[in-house]
Specification:
There is one protein chain. The protein has 99 residues and is mainly β. The protein has one domain. The protein contains no helices and eight strands. It has an eight-stranded antiparallel beta barrel.
Length: 99
């Protein structure tokens, strides 16, 4: 799995950091939002003032560890990018790309 981002979490639950791939290198924020329904996202992801995706709070079945399941999409992408935001060392959160 490839790490495509590094984020820190603030007291209000917002994650700020950078998403970096071969084609993207942007500062981004992952902000908590009020849920509008059972399946609606828990987070909105934005970069440069443009919404780039959404995230859903999850917990690992085996360990109970919390993470955010992320879907990034943009008209310039050939397909959506799916990733997982997990807590790393020293309060850092890593955005891990998956296919």
């Amino acid at each position: 799995m490839a790490q495509i981002g590094t984020f820190t979490r603030s007291d209000d639950g917002t994650f700020t950091g950078t998403i970096r791939t071969l084609n993207i290198n942007v500062k981004a924020s992952i902000k908590p939002i009020a849920k509008e329904g059972e399946r609606s996202p828990d987070y909105r992801i934005a970069a440069n003032g443009v919404e780039l995706g959404a995230g859903w709070s999850k917990a690992a079945k085996e360990t109970g560890a919390e993470y955010v399941s992320v879907k990034l999409d943009d008209p310039s992408f050939t397909a959506p990018v799916y990733a997982t935001l997990v807590q790393g060392d020293n309060g850092e959160h890593r955005l891990i790309w998956s296919r």
